[in-house]
Design brief:
Oligomer: single chain
CATH class of the largest domain: Alpha Beta
Structural class: alpha/beta
Number of strands: 18
CATH architecture of the largest domain: 3-Layer(aba) Sandwich
CATH topology of the largest domain: Rossmann fold
Largest sheet: 8 strands, mixed
Radius of gyration: 27 Å
Strand order of the largest sheet: 8-14-13-15-16-12-17-18
Number of domains: 3
C-alpha cells in the first residue's frame, strides 16, 4: 500500500508539472549486434560514456564515436535485440549504488545481486568512472596494513593507501595471498572489496566459500564478472569495485580492494577495442591501455586529515607467462604501482610457500608506514637473507667452508624455514614480533627443523599478551620464557 501511494504521488506531481509544447528528441537505429557490441546510427548528440536505452529493453554504453555511427558496449541484452531496433539517449552516466548494505553481498558490476538475496538498500549512487583525487587532497602513507604473512609484514611491508602489485605465473598462489590479506583484516575495521574478473564459476564459488567460512564475507563485497559474462561487464568490474571503495574512503574508512586479475581485464578491453575497430598497438592492445589502468589505480590513495583521512589500498593481480615480468601489461602495472610481490614458479615447485621471491619483490613506500618496533627488529634481515641466498650457491660445489660461513648459512636456512607459511593461516603482528625477537636473540640457531615449529608455537604463545608498545626487554624476556619449554 505504501509503495502504491508513493507511486500515485509521483504521478500526480508529474501531471502537475506537465505542459504542452514542442519536444525534439533523437532516435537512433541499431545497425548490427554481435559479440557484446552494438553499432547504432542516428544519434548525433551522443557523448562518450552515456547510457543508451534500446527498444527491446536492452541498454548499452557509448564507447566509440565515429562520423556516421556510434559503437556501444552492451550492458544488458535481451533475446529480442536485433538490427533495426530503435535507440534513445538517456542523458545519464553509468553509476552504481554504494553504502554499507553492500557488505557481505555478491553483486555484478552493475550492482545487481548474484547471491539470491533482495537488492541492497543503497545509501546513494556514485558515477563509476571519475577523476582520481588531486594531489592536494592526498596524504603520505603512514599507517601499516598487515597481511598476516611473515615475509610481507616484516621484509616487504605495505601501508594503507598503497598500490602493491601481485605478479607471477598462473598457479603460483597470487589469489591465495590476496585472500589471506583479506581474511587478516578481521576485527581491524578495514572494509574489503574483492573483484573477480573473467574467472571460472568454480573459482568464483571457491573464493566466496573461503571468505564465508573464515568469517571475512561479513566485511567484504564481492563483485563478479564471470568468464561467460559480456566483455563490457568484465571491462566495468574493476571500476565498479573502485567506486564502491571510494565511497567508504571519502567517508573516512580504510578500504582494501583486490583486482583479480588485471591481465583478464586488459584482454577484455583489447577485445572491445578490436571489435570497435580501434587501431591496435603492441600485442594488439590499444594505445590507451596504460591510461586505462593508470586512471583506475590512481584512485587508490590515503586522503588528507581534513577530508577524513580515509584510505584505499589496492592489490592488483597480474599474470606472467614463463616468469617474463618484462612483457607489456606487467611492465605497465609495475610502473604504475608502488611496488610488487613477485611469486616464483620454481619456489612454488620446491615447496617454499608462499612463493614470494624476495629478490624481485619491493615495497617502495610501505617501510615508511611500518611500526618502529617491527622495523627495528627486521633491520638488515632482508639484506642478510639475500646474502645467504648468494652464499648458498657455493655449498652446491661441495667446497669446505669456514665455521663462521657455515654458521651464516645455517642461520639463513633456519630463516627460510621460518618464512614458510600455510595457506589461509594469517599471523597477528604480535606473533610476528615474537618470532623476530626470538630469531635475533639466536633462539632458533641450535634447533633442527623438526623442533622448529614446536619452538615457534611456544614462543608466539608466550608473547601473545604483549603489544608492540612494550619495550624490547619485555619482549626478550617473554620469548626466552617461551623458549625454555621442552622444544628448547
Amino acid at each position: 500500500m505504501q509503495a502504491e501511494a508513493s507511486q500515485l504521488a509521483a504521478q500526480e506531481e508529474w501531471v502537475g508539472h506537465y505542459a504542452f509544447g514542442l519536444r525534439i528528441s533523437e532516435q537512433g537505429t541499431v545497425i548490427s549486434v554481435g559479440d557484446g557490441i552494438a553499432w547504432i546510427s542516428g544519434l548525433p548528440s551522443a557523448s562518450m560514456d552515456e547510457i543508451l536505452e534500446l527498444e527491446d529493453g536492452s541498454s548499452a554504453l557509448v564507447f566509440h564515436l565515429a562520423a556516421e555511427r556510434i559503437g556501444a558496449i552492451l550492458l544488458k541484452q535481451t533475446e529480442q535485440l536485433t538490427a533495426g531496433n530503435a535507440a534513445h539517449l538517456s542523458g545519464l552516466r553509468l553509476s552504481i549504488g554504494v553504502g554499507d548494505a553492500l557488505l557481505g553481498r555478491v553483486i555484478d558490476p552493475l550492482g545487481n545481486p548474484l547471491d539470491d538475496l533482495p537488492p541492497p538498500d543503497f545509501s546513494g549512487r556514485r558515477q563509476i568512472d571519475v577523476l582520481s583525487p588531486p594531489i592536494m587532497d592526498r596524504d603520505f602513507v603512514n599507517k601499516p596494513l598487515y597481511s598476516g604473512n611473515r615475509i610481507i609484514d616484516t621484509l616487504i611491508p605495505m601501508g594503507k593507501g598503497q598500490r602493491q602489485l601481485l605478479i607471477g605465473d598462473n598457479g603460483t598462489g597470487k589469489s591465495s595471498l590476496a585472500l589471506d590479506t583479506v581474511i587478516n583484516q578481521k576485527e581491524k575495521d578495514v572494509r574489503c572489496v574483492y573483484v573477480l574478473i573473467g574467472q571460472k564459476r568454480s573459482a568464483v564459488v571457491n573464493t566466496i566459500e573461503t571468505l564465508r567460512e573464515s568469517g571475512a564475507l561479513e566485511y567484504t563485497t564481492v563483485i563478479v564478472a564471470e568468464a561467460t559474462a559480456m566483455p563490457g561487464l568484465k571491462y566495468l568490474a574493476p571500476f565498479s569495485g573502485c567506486t564502491i571503495s571510494e565511497y567508504w574512503m571519502w567517508a573516512g574508512k580504510d578500504v582494501l580492494i583486490v583486482y583479480d586479475d588485471l591481465t583478464t581485464h586488459a584482454r577484455a578491453y583489447r577485445e572491445l577495442s578490436l571489435l570497435l575497430r580501434r587501431p591496435p598497438g603492441r600485442e594488439a592492445y590499444p594505445g590507451d591501455i596504460f591510461y586505462l589502468h593508470a586512471r583506475l589505480l590512481e584512485r587508490s590513495t590515503c586522503l588528507a586529515a581534513h577530508l577524513g583521512g580515509g584510505s584505499m589500498t589496492a592489490l592488483p593481480i597480474v599474470e606472467t607467462e614463463q616468469g617474463e615480468i618484462a612483457s607489456y601489461i606487467p611492465t605497465n602495472l609495475i610502473s604504475i604501482t608502488d611496488g610488487q610481490f613477485y611469486l616464483d614458479a620454481q619456489l612454488f615447485s620446491r615447496g617454499f610457500l608462499p612463493a614470494i621471491d624476495i629478490r624481485k619483490s619491493v615495497s617502495r613506500i610501505g617501510g615508511k608506514a611500518q611500526h618502529p618496533a617491527i622495523k627495528n627488529e627486521a633491520g638488515r634481515m632482508k639484506l642478510d637473507y639475500l646474502q645467504f641466498l648468494e652464499l648458498e650457491v657455493f655449498t652446491r660445489f661441495g667446497s669446505r667452508l669456514e665455521a663462521s660461513m657455515e654458521a651464516r648459512i645455517r642461520r639463513g636456512q633456519m630463516l627460510r624455514e621460518l618464512l614458510k607459511q600455510e595457506r589461509l593461516a594469517p599471523i597477528s603482528i604480535e606473533k610476528q614480533m615474537a618470532w623476530l625477537v626470538a630469531y635475533n636473540e639466536g633462539l632458533f640457531d641450535t634447533l633442527d627443523r623438526a623442533a622448529l615449529s614446536r619452538q615457534l608455537a611456544q614462543i608466539e604463545e608466550s608473547a601473545s599478551s604483549l603489544t608492540l608498545a612494550e619495550s624490547r626487554e619485555q619482549w626478550r624476556n617473554a620469548v626466552r620464557k617461551g623458549a625454555s619449554g621442552p622444544a628448547a
